[in-house]
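FORM 7B: Structural annotation worksheet

SECTION A. Query
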Amino acid sequence: MALPVLICDDSAMARKQMARTLPKDWDVEITFATNGAEGIEAIRAGKGEVVFLDLNMPVMDGYEVLQTIQQQDLPALVIVVSGDIQIKAHERVKALGALDFIQKPVSADAIAGILQEYGILVPGENDADAEDDNPLIKVDLRDACQEIANVAMGRAADLLAKLLDVFVLLPIPRVNVLEVSELTMALKATESSSKITALCQGFISSGLSGEALLLFHDSSFHDMAKLMQLDDPNNEATEVEVLIDTGNVLIGAFLSGIAEQLDMHFSQAHPVVLGRHCTVNDLIHDNAEKWQRTLAMEINYRIEDHNIECDLLLLFTEDSLPTLTYKLGYLLDTD
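SECTION B. Predicted structure
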């Protein structure tokens, strides 16, 4: 009898990767859920004896799913599959009853190893290859870009968390192809901060180029300077040091995560302070000519228990879209 397996992830690309990576000889019946609430319903319906669970999802995130399973004693063995590789994230999901943790992007060896370790999969138990009867999962460019941003976001957060000994709260990345006139409306920063200071750093690779923006909320400088153990946190030079140091960590690690997934290498320009104590409207207006139409990836980073918030924004040129599509072609369904 086939084992009910649930893959719970808001990304179509991640669901497709996970389904493709499960052992071919494993006799399973796969169900998909696009958020935690759907996942809980599937578990209650007996469709998730084994669950592969993402953490960053809308409606109900992975932590809430684990809490619900624990509180209601639902019959599910949960393996967390996430781009958030912070040590504290591992500790929290284990405390909430997760069996184990696999970092994205997933590998067949890692999955098979964990399944065998916990006796869920016994090597040679099924001699015949399982028939691939999974429904076709459609993946578009925006979804694929959101998932690679999710993985890169986790790498950057992990580095920042280790440097500052904090826990970085991660959102669902926002990805849109838009005109520069739409950029202000799309930015998360406009919703919660009236004044920002911005750092800009150009990047280029074969067929891909753009600019990374770090939009640092002005109210965050004091707490970040204290975490970095800098003297005189209200000093102007300290503010610039905080901005550049944070940019070096987040932009560098994020671009490295993107490059690794796309099998590319980015060259980075020197960082430039683009605007100080200004509004997002002013920043976009003053730089509208050079951005034009763009694919924008936005991640809003917050540090738990501190008044620290910043937005990392990658703006790819319109000319980069064909290369992105080509690089992600093995995951995109174009038929």
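SECTION C. Observations
DSSP finds 13 helices and 13 strands in the chain. Confidence is low (pLDDT under 50) at residues 127-133.

SECTION D. Sign-off
Analyst initials: ____
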